[in-house]
Design brief:
Length: 78
C-alpha cells in the first residue's frame, strides 16, 4: 500500500508500507494492505508506520483526516 502523510508545511512521509496505526476520532485503528475504502477523522496522537522493510516510524499529529482508496492512503495532518 502506498502512503503519504502531508501537513500544511511539508510532506512527512511518502512510500510503500505494510501497515499504519492511526489515532481515530472514535479510537485508534489500523490499516493493512488492500484495506476497504474509508474516510475518517483523526485526533491528536501518534501515527505508527511499518514500512516494507519492517522498520517502524512514528509521527506526532494534532489531528486531521485519512482517506484509503485503491490501496493508496493519504493522511492530511495538522
Amino acid at each position: 500500500m502506498f502512503l503519504e502523510i502531508i501537513t500544511p508545511d511539508k510532506k512527512l512521509y511518502s512510500g510503500e508500507v505494510k501497515s499504519v496505526k492511526l489515532p481515530g476520532a472514535d479510537g485508534s485503528f489500523g490499516v493493512l494492505n488492500r484495506h476497504v475504502p474509508i474516510i475518517a477523522s483523526l485526533k491528536k496522537g501518534i501515527v505508527k508506520v511499518v514500512d516494507d522493510k519492517n522498520e517502524v516510524q512514528s509521527f506526532d499529529i494534532k489531528g486531521g483526516v485519512v482517506e484509503v482508496l485503491n490501496n493508496k492512503m493519504i493522511v492530511l495532518a495538522e
